Structures are given as structure tokens and as C-alpha cells.
Amino acid sequence: MTTDSGADQGEGLLDRVRQLCGQAADRLPAGPAALVRQAAGSLGEPLRLAFVGRVSSGKSTLVNGYLGRLLAPTDEGECTKVVTSFRFGPADRAQACLHDGSVLPVPLDPGGTLPSKLDVEVDEIRSIEVELSLEVLRDTTIIDTPGLNSVHDENSSRTHDELGISARGNDARGNDARGIDPESRSAAATADAVLFVLNATAHDDERMVLREFRGVSLGLHAAPSNAVGLLTKADEVTMDDDPWAAAVGLAARQSRQLGRDVATVLPVIGLLAETAEARFTESDAAAIRGLAALGQQDREVMLLSAQYFTGFDSAVDPASRERLYTMLRPHGLRRLLAAADEGASGPAMVEALRQCSGMAAVRAEIDRRFRARAVALKAAKALAAMAAAVSSAEVDHSTRAWATGAIDDLGLDPVMHGLEELRALSLVSSGAALLPRAQLDEAARVLAETRTDRRLGLPGAGRDALLAAAHQGVQRWTAIANTAISPRARDVARVITRSLDLECDRLGGEQP
Questions:
Q1: At CA 111, angle to CA 109 and CA 114, rounded to 5?
Q2: Which of 231, 188, 226 is nearest to 54 (CA)?
Q3: Alpha-carbon distance 138 to 269, whole Å?
């Protein structure tokens, strides 16, 4: 029994949301009606996933690593100052969408990367749209945003605008604060989910952006369901030879600190992901093998700094070593030198980089949190936009009451329970739900998995065994919901009870 929970009901929910949006638009004044129609029009699009973070946080490097191609420029060129969307298309092409409504082609560089220079002033560009025949983009559109709090304030503003957030002065500490004006709130965010790129310290203005994004994108479910933090330079959190353990610990602390704003924080080394997927060549592998021939002491001296690495006397030429250091930094170099000691081939070195980059965990998190629940995320976003539209002062009371009731009814759809599962999973992964370890492990499995047999801990089991396990789970978690000391633990237990109740329904109701 390997059914995907709620998959058969997803399209039906989206049809109901479209129908409600159409009915609402027919009853609303022109302005709010246009916003509701826009929200309905996005329901059929692929999941929109935005990479957001501060300048030089590593967003574009992560995008390249995720897509497996050197597409997003990582320098300070003009394309880095514009919101760029990567979507699936039959052929590779790019275009600049201008504020005046016109469109200009953007030729890709010979290597397929967006150019650093554009043929039009950046201020005239609303966004850049790139179509690529990449399988990863078939059901997901990736949005690469300019940096928050850029030295060029207009670049930061473009990111806030893309998320439905606009400037609103400074906070009490004098940091650049961002709020959401009524127009942006009505239009809501264009992204369905966000990967928020963090460095070692999370700043107050970053928390503010996350909270404002959550408000406009999932107003009906104000919880960190659709935002995941990425500690993107995990190899730089400590000077130890193996910084990964320290990065895992720091990510866990950030998960607890940002528990109200992100579902979880994952460590990742974007540079190694980009290098593995798009840069590393057989010539690089040969250079690694040449350096591995040096003694261990010489290798450690070389890794003290970039200057030592490129200047050390070696048969590998300085240009090749400079390239290796730029792509790998000390942590990646140590990993590949160790792999070379064991006779690793070029492809094996690439696989070693993939494993130590953390990108596989990021992909898995995107799949289970966002792709598996894309219908619920999209429906919630459209309903939030509709709720904002009917709250306008120009909407009469009877229309507002009708729309509010209809939105509440749709919010009870079983598919929408997926958002409650994500919210509860955030409480579990952040440590906010105080439960025994065994119950935490079961809670994480039930809330994270979407296949019936996996969430019940019985991969490949038949219907009768799954139905019995679901009934037992309902009884067990109902008792936890009634007896747990922690309010958040009781909250999690209630959500899991509902999840298992729904599984009983899908499996056929009463236990035979």
C-alpha cells in the first residue's frame, strides 16, 4: 500500500478554490477582483520556490548547485540585482521583462550562464525569466532574489517586492525594517515557499522578513510551514579540520531560535554542491591525485591558507591549484585528498563532494515539505489573497461575510490538513514539543512522510496491517493529546490524531 496521502483529492480542492475565486471576483469591485483572479491564475502553475538571503550569503551558488548548472551569476554583475525566475521550457532561453510591459531577449553566455552585463538599465527591468529543459524544473519554478539589505537599496527592495513585502522604516534598534503595505498584502507573495539562506548569525531584519512573508503567503495558516532555513556556508562555521559537526550543532540552535519563523534549519555547503554538479572535471581530479602524492605534513601546510596552497612547491601548476582552492576551499580539498588516498576516480570524487555538501538533505526536505504538499500551499496562498481582497473597505458586508464563510469551509478540506502537519512538524523538529524520544521519532515520521505505508512505519505492508496500525495510532495519540504536560505536545498530538484518522478513511474506514 503506497498511496500518497491526499493525492487524489488535490486537484478537486484546486478546482473548488478556482470556482470560489471566480464567484468572489464576480461580486467584488474591480481592484480586489483583479487580485483574486490573479491568485486563481497561479493555482495551475508549478510550485514557486524562492531563495532569499542577505548579500553574499551564497544564494546564487546554492541555486546553481540545486539546478546542477552554472546559470545564476555569483558576481556583483547586473543580473544579480534583478529577481530571476528559472522555469521549465523546451529550449534554453532568457528574457528581461521591463516595467513598461515590453520584453527583451537576454543572450546566455557561451557556458550557458546569465551575462553579468545587460543591454538595458537595471532600473528598467522588472524581472528576468529563464526557461531551461531541466527535469528538476518540471514541477518547480526557482526564484533567485537580489540580496536583502543590499548596499544598493533598490536591489533589496526588489527582493521584498517579489515576496509581497515593502519598506516601512527602521526597527527599534535602527535596523532596516520591512513591512507589508495593503496592496502587497492583497496581492500576496509570488513564492509558494522560501529557502532562507542564513550565515552564522540570524539578524533581526531577517526574522522580520520571514514573519512578513509568512503573513502574506499563508495568512490562513500563520505558522512556519513554508519557510526552511539553510546554513549555507557550513564549512566556515569553525576552523576545525572537519567543521560539519559544528555546523549541524549551529543549525540545530538556529532551528530553536527561529522556530517561529522557519520550519527547520539545515546545514549545506553551497560551494561544494555547485562544484560537484557543475564545475569539477577530470582535469581537476588529476590535479587532486597529484597533490595527494605529497606527504601528509606538506598537505597540511598547503591548506593553511590560499596563499600557501597556490605558492607551495608542487608538480601541479599554480593556476590549477588556484582553481581547486576557489571551488573546494580547505574542507572540500581535505575530503578529496582523502578520497584520492583511497584511489577514487573522478566520478567517485564528485560523489564524495555531493555527500559532504548536504544538498541531498536539502532536496529531500523540499520534496517532503513543499512538493508533497504543493496543493495545500497553493490553495492556502490563493485563499489568503482572497481573504485580503474581501477585507478592503470598498467590499460590502454581505460579500465579506459570504467569502469568509466559504474560505473557512475550504480550510477544513482534508488536503489542507497538510499545512497543519507542517506546522506540527516544525514544533517537533525545533524541540518545542516536549515528548519522549520514541514519541518524537514517531511524530516526525507521521508528519514528514506522505506515503501511507511509510508514515505508519510499515513500508510495503498490505491494507489490513496498515488499517490496524492507523487505528492503534489514533488511540495512542488521542491519549497523548489528553495527557501530555506540554501544550505544544498536546497540539502536535491532536494534529497527528487527525492525520491518522484521515488515513483510516483512505484505507477504507472501519477495521475489519
A1: 40
A2: 231
A3: 25
